[in-house]
Amino acid sequence: MTSRLAGCALLLLASSPLQAQTGAFVVRLGTDTIAVERFQRTGDRIEGSVVRHTPTTNVVQYQITLNGDGTVSTYRQQIVRADGSPMPNAPSPLMMRFTGDSVMRDIVQNGQPVTLRHAAPRGTLPTIPGSFFQYEMLIKASRSAARGTIGFGAQQQAPSPQEVAFFGSDSAEIIARVAAVGPGSSPLVLRTGFRLDAGGNVIRADGALTTQKFLVTRLPDVNAAAIANAWAANDAAGQPMGAASTRDTLSASIGTATVWIDYGRPAKRGREIWGKLVPNDTTWRLGANAATQFRTDKDLDIGGVRVPAGFYTLWLYPTATRTWLIVNKQTGQWGTAYDRSQDVARIPVDAQMNLANVEERFRIYMRGDRLMMHWDRGGYDVRVRVANEE
Question: Of the segments 161-175, 202-216, 341-355, which one has the largest average pLDDT value?
């Protein structure tokens, strides 16, 4: 295995100036298609569109021009509706110019056009929202040089390095590290696997080791406009895909205590959940998106462990043999920002893997004095009562 940062030269597919090369990616979350991307290169110009389906249909349109050595010269981007009209509250069209050691970004501030200049080495790539073509560019670039960066987007102040590891000639992995958030926490490592063809083109991507859990396949072409129009028609008919994970709350009385839980509810979407989508030996946010929040106005006995009245976040650490509910005093953070040094309690919970009813979306609820954490046909539960109260 070799490992290196993205290179300074982009070795894209060779083509004659007049021969257009077209490709497409389909992005699925379980059984649901959540995005499609179509791109076309003609000479030194690349045009693409990413049609996204969540929470409502929108299209990222992008254009890239290349220098003679294959590095990016200019990048243009706008986000529109399926019919090409501006999205409400979408960022204004973006223009970036990549020079020898800088990126110049043309934006609008307070209604006035402004050009911002940021240091960035030659070979820096633009960040394209939802794009997998950008990762194909990164992988090809990293074959040729030992240094480089990917990721300079609309709001960034500096490029974002990502590591590329190769496994033989037909596989690669892009590794992104999210910075630690506390003295007891470790950087979050997100790994996306890629299968490559003989020309180094991405033919499959697997996000099982990221927080998004997507699968991506390559097609020769797609009718992105027709897909966008069909998804927009569903939106107009009151049948949008909606958020990939909804937000919900549980409020319950336990004896003389009032408890409240706020959490994200990801959907099964045909996937295997326990031990797969929620892997063993990994701290899980007990839901999706922002960390699961928990408040109690009385001291509680949870599974025989005393938890003082207060405001916390909840996490789950499953293994093949035992599973723990984690109560942590850090609050307000995203669900990837877990800091073990702030744990208040680790509480063993009971597995319930043959429940009668199927929960398509993860659900937390009370059943008698048991706190239930249920998804698909299984989950975990633990007894909860007011401390020192029978």
Answer: 341-355
Query: What's the whole-number average pLDDT of the chain?
Result: 87
CA–CA separation, 230 vs 241, rounded Å?
12
pLDDT in tens, 303-330: 999 999 999 999 999 999 999 999 999 9
DSSP characters for 54-109?
SSS-EEEEEEEEE-TTS-EEEEEEEEE-TTSPBPTTPPPPEEEEE-SSEEEEEEEE
Q: What pLDDT shows up at residue 56? A: 86
Cβ within 8 Å of residue 34, ≥6 positions away:
27, 28, 52, 53, 54, 214, 241, 244
Distance, CA of 139 to chain centre: 19
Handedness of CA 78, 79, 82, 83 (dihedral sign): negative
Residues in contact with 59: Cβ distance below 8 Å, sequence separation at least 6, in sequence order: 49, 50, 51, 52, 79, 80, 81, 82, 84, 224, 228
Specify if 116 maps to a domain: yes
Could you tell me if 212 and 79 lie in one domain? yes
Same domain, 338 and 263: yes
Judged against a pLDDT cut of 70, whether residue 246 lies above it is answered with: yes
Q: How many domains does the chain have?
A: 2
CB 216 within 8 A of CB 194: no
- 220 and 270, same domain (yes or no): no
Look at residue 240 and tell me if it is in a domain: no
Contacts of 272 (CB under 8 A, 6+ apart): none
C-alpha 4/C-alpha 18 separation (Å) is 34
Pair (252, 150) in one structural domain: no
Domain that holds residue 121: 2-234
Gap between the Cα atoms of 244 and 226, Å rounded: 22
Rg (CA), the chain: 24
Q: For the segment 23-61, what is each residue's pLDDT rounded down to a tens digit? A: 999 999 888 899 999 999 999 999 999 999 877 899 999
Q: Is residue 239 part of a domain?
A: no
